[in-house]
Design goal:
Structural class: mainly alpha
Order of helices and strands: HHHH
Number of helices: 4
Radius of gyration: 16 Å
Length: about 80
């Protein structure tokens, strides 16, 4: 079983800051120490996706989600997810 976790930045973040965060996160998640730990923890470990490739994957995935499901997820987020 392969698990994928998407990590999003807040909307409106400046492009240069977003690129910095993408670069540093990718450097960390692909470092030798992190890869070694992840391979021990998860027998099936694949190369992480980053930046534009990930953005394309997310857009493709969201294009397959119905407006009804999106509305339901937004209502769930409003009710249960807080930034306070």
């Amino acid at each position: 079983m392969i698990s994928q976790k998407l990590i999003f930045a807040q909307a409106g973040i400046p492009k240069d800051r977003l690129q910095f965060l993408r670069t540093k996160f990718y450097e960390d998640i692909t470092s030798e120490a992190t890869v070694r730990m992840m391979k021990q923890r998860f027998p099936v470990w694949g190369e992480p996706t980053n930046g534009e490739d990930l953005a394309t994957d997310v857009k493709d995935l969201l294009a397959r989600v119905s407006p009804k499901d999106i509305a339901m997820a937004l209502e769930f987020a409003k009710k249960y997810v807080t930034t306070k």
